Amino acid sequence: MTSTPSGDRDPAEQAVQLVAGLADLAVSTVGSAVGTLRGLLRRSDGPELAREAQRDLMARGRIALDRYASVPPAHLELLAQHVVARRAASGDDV
To answer: Is-above-0.70 flag for pTM?
Structure first.
């Protein structure tokens, strides 16, 4: 494989290189995670770390679900609420 600009390469070659790069990244990340896990298992406060990690993951899960699963309020409803609040603040009758 040559080192030419990506526009000159065959799309199949680009796809192979992309997959190889992702695979290399995954392997190095997994290797690093395994090393970290081994170090954590040797610690005496392992059960407490596991509980803390579980709490953190649960919190992240709640945040992710709230971000992607909740339906935002209707735009016109928000505008109506702002109008009512402004009128109430200025003393106008609603």
So the answer is: no
